[in-house]
Design goal:
Layout (H helix, E strand, L loop, with lengths): L2 E7 L10 E5 L5 H9 L5 E6 L9 H6 L2 E4 L6 H4 L2 H13 L3 E4 L17 H11 L7 E9 L7 E7 L3 E2 H7 L6 H14 L11 H15 L6 E4 L2 H14 L3 H11 L5 H13 L2 H17 L1 H21 L6 H28 L1 H25 L8 H5 L1 H16 L2
Length: 409
């Protein structure tokens, strides 16, 4: 319910057995590891910040869910020496023919592009085969893209690239002077094919605004949930490629055309509804929104304050934007579970178990209605607004030109 659409592609190529190393970009702290773990079939071991293991109460849980500490220079030289034990633990993961996830950018930063990879992934891959911990290691480049990084009910694209055989790569590069550097370059190139990267200097906000305008045309909403197809990922890669090809004058022109009118996705969806939909379609959308809102009243009454509290906690507790959405999701899950249990127990003490189960099920349906309302409402912000009517020809022309330019191969 936290995300609207999750597009997953390429996971059919992941080996079902043997040693596997996933390498992924890292825009959204621990949300990234959770998504990779959920949307492929291998059980994951994951490298995380070593200072998390300093919390005695958290240490047993981290080990239970297959977390391995990795220490950084800012953790102190004494801790940095512990990374030999980290590499040994990773080698043992591969010796058991298990899967490991690492983030070779070495830090989390919410940007819509791939940063330079550090050498740890290459060093670990080569060491696994040269140390004879495994006869083969498959590396899976993985790209994560968040359409609206700080918002709930947004879209995510996850793409798993072609598996890389490390034994095959070593056979082809026996004469390389610096195998670690050469493999790092190869992994960087492989990751570039998987990560949606909009690299215009200072153009991150403009890129998201462009996506907001193009989304209804190139990534039309049909249904929420998990969607296993690679078309959306290819579309996002194509938009990013064409965006990167723009020169400074073209970028400034685009900035002037798109302006800065509110939320880019709300603007784009509302524009689509106001100018590209029939009056009957707009009326149906309004009626659907009213029906969904009516159905969501019970959820608003029960979950409204706890979920607002979760959002407040995330905003005030997190100094870095990369942690906002993951912390908000975690807090929302805790509050949702606690309130649901309390509600179910209360109904049970009054009426009995069957009524309690039915009431809890209806409450979840009501929460789903709220999600539907939140999705539909973004299409209705400006429906019938006079400025759309006055500028309709210009706006239709702009959207069509942008769709043709950024949607082409």
């Amino acid at each position: 319910m936290f995300y609207r659409r999750i597009w997953v592609s390429g996971n059919e190529g992941i080996p079902r057995s043997g040693a596997v190393l996933f390498i992924a970009n890292h825009p959204k702290s621990f949300m990234d590891a959770s998504l990779v773990a959920c949307f492929q079939h291998r059980v994951l071991n994951t490298l995380i910040r070593g200072d998390m293991f300093e919390k005695w109460w958290l240490r047993p849980l981290l080990r239970t869910i297959h977390q391995i500490p990795i220490f950084r220079l800012k953790d102190g030289f004494a801790n940095l020496k512990k990374n030999k034990g980290t590499f040994d633990a990773c080698y043992q993961v591969f010796a058991r023919n298990e899967a490991l996830l690492i983030f070779p950018e070495a830090s989390t930063l919410m940007v819509p592009y791939l940063r330079p990879l550090q050498k740890g992934a290459a060093r670990l891959s080569i060491g696994t085969l040269e140390g004879e911990f495994s006869k083969e290691l498959w590396v899976i480049p993985t790209g994560l893209f968040y359409a609206e990084p700080t918002r709930s009910r947004s879209d995510i694209a996850i793409h798993f690239g072609e598996p890389i055989s490390i034994s095959g790569w070593l056979s082809e590069n026996r004469g390389a002077d610096d195998k670690v550097a050469a493999l790092t370059n190869h992994l960087q190139e492989s990751m570039e094919k998987c990560v949606v990267s909009a690299r215009q200097e200072g153009g991150e906000v403009l890129f998201y605004r462009l996506l907001g305008m193009l989304e209804p045309a190139l990534l039309p909403f049909q249904r929420p949930g998990l969607l296993r197809k690679d078309g959306p990922w290819q579309t996002l890669m194509r938009i990013a490629k064409n965006f990167n090809a723009m020169n400074r004058a073209e970028r400034d022109q685009l900035q002037g055309q798109l302006g800065a009118e509110g939320d880019p996705y709300v603007y784009g969806r509302s524009l689509h509804m106001a100018l590209f939909s029939s009056p009957l379609a707009r009326l149906s959308c309004i009626c659907g929104a009213l029906f969904a809102f009516t159905g969501s009243l019970a959820a608003i009454a029960v979950y409204g304050i706890p979920l607002l509290l979760a959002r407040t906690i995330a905003r005030k507790a997190m100094k870095h934007v990369e942690f906002y959405a993951p912390v908000r999701l975690a807090a929302s899950m805790v509050f949702h579970l606690s309130v649901t249990l309390a509600f179910g127990i209360y109904i049970y003490t009054i009426t009995g178990v069957l009524t309690a189960l039915g009431a809890v099920a209806l409450l979840q349906w009501s929460l789903l209605c709220w999600c539907v309302f939140a999705d539909v409402a973004k299409y209705l912000h400006f429906t019938g607004h006079l400025r759309f009517i006055h500028r309709s020809s210009a706006l239709i022309g702009l959207r069509n030109r942008l769709t043709e330019r950024f949607g082409r191969h």
